[in-house]
Amino acid sequence: MDFSEDNPLEYALYLQYKDEELCWPFIGIALILSTIAFFGIVFNSTLIYVTIRAKNINGTANYLLALNAMFELMHQYVYFTFLYLSLTGQNFIDYKLAVKIGMLSIFGYSGVFPAMLCTGIDRLFCVIFPIFHRTVKKLAYLSGMCIACAAFSVYSVIIIIITAESMPNMKTTGFKGDLYQGNLANVRKNIIFLLIISTIFVYFVTGINIRKRKIQNVTIADKINRKIFYSLCLIISVNIGGYFLMYFYGLFIMPSLVQQNSLILAWFGVVLFAIPLNISAISIAPILFMTSALYRKAFQSEWKRLRTLVGLGSSNVIFVNSVHPVQPMKQIHI
């Protein structure tokens, strides 16, 4: 493929900055994105760690939230490649090499979307089929969802590798958005859009059913499910909001800039819109800390335990309540 014809944005960017040793626009944006990625790695790692450590955070929703965090964690490291290339003055590397370096990031980023849908489906099952949800074999149930998420991630990695092999002359900055090129990546983008719409639909249906049960029942389990649902709705809204901002830019703003031949400006627009997208990607743990008393207690207990281990010695193992439905025997706050 001809680099200049098939990738006009990247080609224009390459011609503009290929001879600059230190490109300050690249460095500035890379620093911002890498800083966000650093906090994302810390927050998402903390959520995964707390889910493992807190013995009673063992509901299906807990594990699926940790799965979401794991995928977000995997996708965020790629920004350090962009930062390294900018700070060293290399600025560009072969697209094939960038894909090899960013393969784990592609896998993680692609897994976010089916993971969000699986979390919504889990809540729908919990509300509509509560007996099934309580009695289902958790390992098989969660394994099936993990396999579905991994399948789409593997598919995404394969099509990006195929695309990279067909573009041997292309140069890229290492920025995450530059990894997704070609017609196959556009097909993948359409699938992601369908996954997002499906997630919204599932949460809408779940919300309607929770509303009906709120009118008909006032059991402890129903109250817990409502609180879980509201926390998850906030998480999904923030995450999907970031992706919709990027879609809005790609559908309405970027084509106008390309038509005006403002190709470099169009590329920088993609990078700038990636900032709120990546802020949304680090939101799971902070939102749970702010909205869930259970997670807040778990985070605080683990921080206290770690401080004790570092400073004074050992401390007690923590126990907190799970976010999966429970029998209406006692009050639990989320």
What does this structure look like?
With 334 residues, the chain is an all-alpha fold. It has a single domain (3-311), classed as Rhopdopsin 7-helix transmembrane proteins. It is 77% helix and 1% strand. It has 14 helices and 2 strands, in the order H-H-H-H-H-E-H-H-H-H-E-H-H-H-H-H. It has helices at residues 3-6, 8-17, 24-53, 60-76, 79-87, 95-101, 103-128, 130-135, 138-165, 182-216, 220-259, 263-281, 284-291, 293-311; strands at residues 93-94, 171-172. The longest helix is centred in the last third of the chain and has 40 residues, at 220-259. The relative contact order is 0.15.
Give a quick set of tags describing it.
two-stranded antiparallel ribbon, single chain, 2 strands, 14 helices, 77% helix, Rhopdopsin 7-helix transmembrane proteins, 334 residues, mainly alpha, globular, 1% strand
